[in-house]
Design goal:
Layout: E1 2-8, H1 11-27, E2 31-33, E3 40-48, H2 54-64, E4 71-83, E5 86-94, H3 98-112, E6 127-133, H4 140-148, E7 153-159, E8 161-170, E9 173-183
Antiparallel strand pairs: 1-3, 1-8, 2-6, 4-5, 4-7, 5-6, 8-9
């Protein structure tokens, strides 16, 4: 099964992001927009994982949060990879809370590397993927909307747990389901 480690968003932030996706969808129907219930921050994509290894992965995540404390993140602004002028992935950013989020992602990397999950080649960039452009090309209207929403606020989220998630792909998009939840201690 395909699996990943995530921080889930609260209902208020997901609702605010869903409203923004609805706004963007009118201008960019050729983007595969993420369903509101699937919005999250990916800390690490694991790829294909054998069911027998999931217990070890959950134990590794427990180890990664042993010295971590709950913290807040602010979901703010839109952006795109590789750039707003030529978007492939449209995302909402993480403003406040980037440092503890980066530290948490690094602890997850350290805990899972001995289990055979290779470290990421590129630096971690915390964000919430909102959509993937089906056929990347310049889209001036979408680019303008992304740039205009640079400081749009989507809410504060308390990070109190890591979620080990399963991803099942279908013609109707991805469906995510919880495998394990690992709590982060209160400060």
């Amino acid at each position: 099964m395909r699996a990943f480690v995530a921080v889930r968003l609260d209902d208020r932030s997901r609702a605010a992001l869903r409203a923004e996706i609805d706004h963007l969808r009118r201008v960019a129907p050729d983007v595969a927009w993420v369903a509101a219930e699937n919005l999250h921050v990916t800390l690490k994509f694991l790829g294909q994982v054998e069911t027998a290894r999931l217990r070890d992965v959950a134990a590794g995540l427990e180890e990664s949060v042993r010295v971590a404390h709950a913290f807040d993140i602010e979901v703010r602004g839109l952006g795109a990879f590789p750039s707003p002028s030529r978007p492939r992935v449209v995302w909402a950013g993480i403003a406040a809370g980037r440092d503890p989020m980066n530290a948490l992602a690094e602890r997850v990397e350290q805990a899972l590397a001995p289990l055979g999950f290779p470290r990421e080649d590129r630096a971690f960039s915390p964000h919430v993927t909102l959509g993937r452009v089906r056929e990347p090309r310049r889209d001036a209207r979408l680019s303008r909307l992304i740039e205009a929403a640079e400081n749009l606020e989507f809410g504060m989220v308390r990070v109190e747990a890591l979620w080990l998630m399963r991803s099942d792909l279908s013609t109707r998009g991805a469906r995510y389901s919880e495998i394990a939840v690992v709590s982060v201690s209160a400060p």
